[in-house]
Design brief:
Residues 4-214 form the FAD/NAD(P)-binding domain. The protein has 217 residues and is an alpha/beta fold. It contains 5 helices and 8 strands; from the N terminus they run E-H-E-H-H-H-E-E-E-E-E-H-E.
């Protein structure tokens, strides 16, 4: 059985940064991640891919609708959406590899699997349904992040009803797109697909969109 001073569950920004700092301070540190790539939601299916695609979409939108005002014109301007997705994937992959290197460089032991607490000082690491490792620890940091919520009346089927994760890896541009939720993620994704040609409708139960933000926004 392995022992660690600190075990971090989750390798997103909260997790891998905590792991690196703990190791730098001299703690024997391990990090547990259930998905194949480090980086968590933000890097793999959140901030990084969405901001990358939004940047591409903004450039396309400007080239199509604004550049002519400055004397810049295009003949037969085309959008290769599959290439956009591939470019986004390559950027995500490169950053994932960078985080993997940082974990290795800082001598942090990494485990692939799901963490289950047996007691306050013992964790089982599961791969599917079998226990692949048992570790003891003194301190644990839980940094498991979040994932899209499924609504009871709109079950995600990966086809007609998809999540904010799925929409970042589509291989086509939807002609019409309805987004349930007018928070930051919904507005960002709606803006992205609107700029590349989708007819977007946002459905929000609150009085205002991005209701948690300043009203000026």
């Amino acid at each position: 059985m392995n022992y660690y001073d600190v075990v971090i569950i989750g390798s997103g920004p909260g997790g891998y940064i905590s792991a690196i700092r703990c190791s730098q301070l001299g703690f024997n540190t391990a990090i547990i991640e259930k998905y194949p790539n480090f980086g968590g939601t933000c890097l793999n299916v959140g901030c990084i891919p969405s901001k990358t695609l939004l940047y591409y979409a903004e450039n396309y939108h400007k080239a199509k609708n604004m550049f002519y005002k400055h004397g810049i014109k295009f003949d037969n301007l085309l959008l290769d959406f599959k290439k956009m997705i591939n470019s986004k994937n390559n950027i995500v992959k490169k950053i994932c590899e960078g985080i993997k290197y940082l974990i290795y460089k800082n001598k942090i032991k990494s485990y692939l699997g799901t963490a289950i607490f047996k007691n306050k000082n013992t964790i089982y690491i599961l791969n599917k349904k079998s226990i692949i490792e048992k570790i003891n620890f003194t301190y644990a940091i839980i940094a498991t992040g979040s994932k899209p919520m499924e609504l009871p009346f709109a079950k995600i089927d990966g086809k007609k009803i998809i999540s904010s994760t799925d929409i970042l890896s589509l291989n086509y541009i939807p002609k019409k797109l309805s987004i349930i939720g007018g928070g930051v993620i919904g507005i960002e994704l709606g803006s992205l697909y609107n700029k590349i040609g989708s007819d977007v409708t946002i459905i929000e139960s609150e009085k205002n969109i991005i209701s948690k933000m300043d009203l000026d926004l």
